[in-house]
């Protein structure tokens, strides 16, 4: 009986449109599986609170995640030596330029041991959003060990979603849109 079912599928699988749809679904499924694997150690899974932090920005000012309560927050973890991070910069800049009043972008630099090099990097790449100096504790708390990594935090402080690797402008905007403001 099972072989009869497969025999009935034969003509369908020979149809090019059906094959294209099935291949597309397989690629989408693979993408979701890889994404889930990459973020399996990320903080805030299942709507848990994002780990609290207070970090210094490039001017030495203390910035706390709690300062942005009731706002949607994009936490963009990057490293200046990361080629994929550099490729993602146009999307990050575009997201920053399109933020609503209840949204904020905070970039967190993993290579924070050289603030002057980070300032130079920010100038060279025209980054006009807050860049915070990561600590080992924050990177560990967020489970970040690959770059770039993006977290989307709801206004109540819980994690809406997270990603690893190159994100597109559309993907970033959709994830920010899906985050809740309160």
Architecture overview:
By secondary structure, the protein is of the alpha/beta class. The protein is built from six helices and seven strands; from the N terminus they run H-H-E-E-E-H-E-H-E-H-E-E-H. A five-stranded mixed sheet has the order 5-4-3-6-7. A hairpin with a 5-residue loop joins strand 6 (149-153) and strand 7 (159-164). Helix 3 (83-97) packs across helix 6. The mean pLDDT is 85.
Walk me through the topology.
Blueprint: H1 2-14, H2 16-38, E1 54-56, E2 62-64, E3 72-78, H3 83-97, E4 103-109, H4 115-124, E5 131-133, H5 136-142, E6 149-153, E7 159-164, H6 169-178
Helix pairs in contact: 3-6
Gist of the model:
The chain is α/β, with parallel strands linked by helices and 182 residues long. It is built from 6 helices and 7 strands, in the order H-H-E-E-E-H-E-H-E-H-E-E-H.
Please give a handful of descriptors for the protein shown.
7 strands; two-stranded antiparallel sheet; 5-stranded mixed β-sheet; Glutaredoxin; 43% helix; 182 residues; elongated; alpha/beta; 2 domains
The CATH level-2 architecture of the largest domain is identified as 3-Layer(aba) Sandwich
CATH topology of the largest domain: Glutaredoxin
Identify the quaternary structure here. Answer: single chain
Report the top-level CATH class of the largest domain. Alpha Beta
Q: Order of strands in the sheet with the most strands? A: 5-4-3-6-7
Bulk shape: elongated
Task: Give the CA-CA distance, first to last residue.
Answer: 54 Å
Low-confidence stretches: none
User: Which class best fits the helix and strand makeup?
Assistant: alpha/beta
């Amino acid at each position: 009986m099972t072989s009869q079912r497969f025999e009935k599928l034969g003509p369908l699988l020979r149809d090019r449109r059906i094959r294209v749809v099935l291949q597309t679904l397989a690629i989408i499924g693979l993408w979701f599986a890889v994404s889930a694997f990459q973020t399996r150690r990320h903080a805030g899974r299942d709507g848990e609170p994002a780990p609290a932090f207070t970090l210094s920005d490039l001017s030495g000012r203390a910035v706390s995640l709690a300062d942005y309560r009731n706002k949607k927050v994009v936490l963009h973890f990057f490293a200046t030596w990361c080629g994929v991070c550099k490729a993602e910069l146009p999307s990050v800049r575009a997201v920053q330029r399109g933020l609503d009043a209840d949204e904020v972008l905070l970039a967190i630099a993993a290579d924070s041991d050289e603030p002057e090099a980070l300032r130079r990097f920010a100038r060279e790449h025209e980054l006009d959003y807050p860049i915070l100096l990561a600590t080992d504790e924050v990177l560990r708390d967020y489970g970040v060990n690959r770059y770039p990594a993006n977290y989307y935090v709801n206004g109540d402080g819980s994690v809406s979603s997270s990603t690893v690797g190159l994100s597109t402008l559309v993907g970033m905007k959709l994830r920010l849109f899906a985050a809740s403001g309160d």
